[in-house]
Amino acid sequence: MLSRSTFHKFTTRIHHRAVGYKKGIDREVDPYRLWYVNNGIYLVGHDHRSGEIRAFAVERISAAKATNRRFEVPGEFDFEKFTRSAFNVVWGEPQEVKIQFSSDQAPYLEERTWHPSQKIEKHSDGSIVLTLQVANLWEVRRWLIGFGADARVLRPTNLAKDIEQECARLLKIKKPRKVRQ
Q1: Phi, psi angles (nearest 5°) of residue 125
Q2: Are 144 and 105 members of one domain?
Q3: In terms of C-beta distances under 8 Å and separation of at least 24 residues, what long-range contacts does 21-26 make, across chains too?
Q4: Which 8-state DSSP code applies to residue 3?
Q5: Fewer CB within 10 Å: N-end or C-end of the chain?
Q6: In terms of C-beta density within 10 A (0-12 exposed, 13-18 middle, 19 or more buried), how is residue 18 classed?
Q7: Is position 48 within any domain?
Q8: Cα separation of the two ends of the chain
Q9: Is 27 in a helix, a strand, or coil?
């Protein structure tokens, strides 16, 4: 249904449940595009309720029905430009992020494009500094925590503090008791 509505440009009623909410909300959306990113499919379009362009995770849409109303994608909407600041899914006003990675992780990071804005600076000790222009620090934080002590945030300081606080929270979690079988 969503692909047909997108292709034929029909305003569509969806029932969508946002992360962290138990109940979904009915919305009317002009679906501009289906977007595969980060192992998920997202419906990108004009949300009539908020009046903004939003991305809705398809797996959180429990119902979709096309209306008989057609729409046109605004001529000024440039999907590539619109999503350029997204590290994964969330876009917005970009900010500079600088991360130093250890020499152990440098080859892995150099072989991929993590973001279209990325710049890599190589250091004589084998480490690298990755610079990105991205909108959402939450997505970057989630990604960086997986590198552990092999990644050090140089900029912005609030991202470094967020990761430090998250790691402190992890240390406070009690280990689960072993279950006898």
Answers
A1: -85, 0
A2: yes
A3: 24/60, 24/62, 25/49
A4: H
A5: C
A6: exposed
A7: yes
A8: 47
A9: strand
Amino acid at 117: S
Q: Which of 171, 146, 144, 141 is nearest to 158 (CA)?
A: 141
53, part of any domain? yes
Q: What CA–CA distances, in Å, run from 31 to 1, 18, 50, 62?
A: 11, 17, 14, 16
**E strand residue ranges, the chain:** 10-16, 25-37, 40-47, 52-57, 61-70, 95-101, 119-122, 128-134, 151-155
| 3-state SS record for 68-97 | EEECCCCCCCCHHHHHCCCCCCCCCCCEEE
For 40, the domain range is: 2-83
Q: Are 101 and 109 in contact (CB under 8 A)?
A: yes
Structure tokens at 143: 């990604």
Same domain, 21 and 77: yes
In angstroms, the CA 132 to CA 109 distance is: 13
| Residues listed for the chain | 181
Dist. CA 106–CA 122, nearest whole Å: 9
